[in-house]
Backbone:
């Protein structure tokens, strides 16, 4: 599925999102910049909890908090825009768990919270 398709909508702070199953349980979020077509995933878990997997749209939580841009990106402008959408989501949804692609501390938090 393409993010240019007619069924693409928006979700929270993200301008382009695909509701994978039509029930808001899995949102595919367009977060280009690190690479063309990069996608992050938002999962709606039990009791309304949300888990955002940024993959390489934010290497580590510091990337979100400090606006850090890694050395290897396809498009710096798009990377910053995607990082801004992630930052706004985090601000709007402080209860969400956010896991960044290269952040070992974040993965440890998931293991303890979801056992």
Residues:
């Amino acid at each position: 599925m393409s993010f240019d398709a007619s069924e693409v909508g928006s979700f929270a702070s993200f301008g382009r999102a695909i509701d994978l199953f039509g029930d808001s349980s899995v949102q595919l979020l367009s977060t280009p910049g690190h690479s063309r077509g990069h996608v992050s995933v938002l999962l709606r878990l039990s009791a309304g909890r949300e888990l955002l997997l940024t993959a390489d749209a934010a290497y580590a939580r510091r990337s979100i908090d400090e606006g850090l841009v890694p050395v290897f990106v396809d498009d710096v402008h798009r990377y910053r825009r995607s990082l801004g959408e992630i930052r706004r989501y985090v601000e709007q949804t402080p209860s969400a768990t956010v896991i960044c692609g290269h952040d070992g501390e974040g993965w440890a938090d998931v293991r303890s919270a979801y056992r």
